[in-house]
Specification:
Distance between the termini of chain B: 38 Å
Strand content of chain B: over 45%
Structural class of chain A: mainly beta
Number of helices of chain A: 0
Strand content of chain A: over 45%
Helix content of chain B: under 10%
Oligomer: heterodimer
Structural class of chain B: mainly beta
Distance between the termini of chain A: 36 Å
Radius of gyration of chain A: 13 Å
């Protein structure tokens, strides 16, 4: 198993540009989530999904959209990037009823 | 309002000694607690967890203690090794509902040879 994969590893955007961060898992996990990590802020939940077709907002959802059309994929969309969205983004997944989440390697995003 | 607090941004210990990382929480509805370890440029990896119905869980060199009355948990690493140098995050899950986790800000542990 590849586990949780994220692409790209690094990305630089200009303010106002849009992009999609990709996340995929091959473990048939129902639960998937997106976090951002900022210096001194820990990990903050952006959006999460408990299964295909079901998504919900986390702690810091503004400026981000998600969809979950398949069990495997959970892309995160930035519609109009802002410098405040400069961060490291982590995707995570877990099976139903299991509290321990498996994290991907992260995407480092810089918005100029 | 920070529900999970790790008040020590950093901790430095000598190899072979005990490392104690602390975590406090404010939400009485948390029923499951986890510790994650994170190396630079990598994703967090699960280390150890504890249910609120227990007060101790042990896995090799790692032990987590939970004091519900004080809303406090701690991670003990004995003996500490240089490879343990990383950022450690405490996380908590609310009883029932989804698998959402609330994370603390992390403590950077440095184990000196």
């Amino acid at each position: 198993n590849a586990g949780v994969t994220q692409t790209p590893k690094f990305q630089v955007l200009k303010t106002g540009q849009s992009m999609t961060l990709q996340c995929a898992q091959d473990m048939n996990h129902e639960y998937m989530s997106w976090y951002r990590q900022d210096p001194g802020m820990g990990l903050r939940l952006i959006h999460y999904s408990v299964g295909a077709g079901i998504t919900d907002q986390g702690e810091v959802p503004n400026g981000y959209n998600v969809s979950r059309s398949t069990t495997e994929d959970f892309p995160l969309r930035l519609l109009s990037a802002a410098p405040s969205q400069t961060s490291v983004y982590f995707c995570a997944s877990s099976p139903r009823g299991v509290h321990e989440q498996f994290f991907g390697p992260g995407t480092r995003l810089t918005v100029l | 309002d920070q529900q999970v607090k790790q008040n020590s941004p950093s901790l430095s210990v000598q190899e072979g000694r005990i490392s104690i990382l602390n975590c406090d929480y404010t939400n009485s509805m948390f029923d499951y607690f986890l510790w994650y370890k994170k190396y630079p440029a990598e994703g967090p990896t699960f280390l150890i967890s504890i249910s609120s119905i227990k007060d101790k869980n042990e896995d090799g060199r790692f032990t987590v203690f939970l004091n519900k009355s004080a809303k406090h948990l701690s991670l003990h690493i004995v003996p500490s090794q240089p490879g343990d140098s990383a950022v450690y995050f405490c996380a908590a899950k609310v009883q029932g509902g989804s698998e959402k986790l609330v994370f603390g800000k992390g403590t950077k542990l440095t184990v000196n040879p």
